[in-house]
Amino acid sequence: MPKVNLNVSLNNGHLEVDQAGNGTQIGRGEVATISWHLTTAKGAFNELDASNRGFAWITTPPPEGVFTDLKLLLHNEEIQITDNNTDPGGVSSAGTWIYQLWATINDIEYSTIATLPPATSTNPTIKNL
Hints:
Helices cover 0% and strands 48% of the residues. The strands form two sheets. Strands 3, 5, 6, 9, 10 and 11 form a six-stranded mixed sheet that branches. The chain is built from no helices and eleven strands. By secondary structure, the chain is mainly beta. A hairpin with a 2-residue loop joins strand 9 (95-105) and strand 10 (108-111). The chain has strands spanning 3-11, 14-17, 25-26, 31-38, 43-45, 55-57, 67-73, 78-84, 95-105, 108-111, 125-128.
């Protein structure tokens, strides 16, 4: 199973996901583990519950079963998800989804999307081919 590792850093007051080399394009028929690693010292991704989200889909959520096993690891410095680009349950897994990450660094909350201050210029995506 392929593994995609994405570094997340604090840049000009927002979180930035390094998606160099089309790192979040998953080939048709593949199952891949996608991991986001917070590279900023004294920070952690927020919890994955409704009251203090660390990860959320911004566009229409993907069909049930395409993404599974969302979890926090390594003292909340890593978020991991499984991408099942294999048409689970007969539902098409092809598509592009924008997501948002939140982390608290030095007691200040930051995000990858402009809807949460401070403003940001990135809209990270996962694309299933």
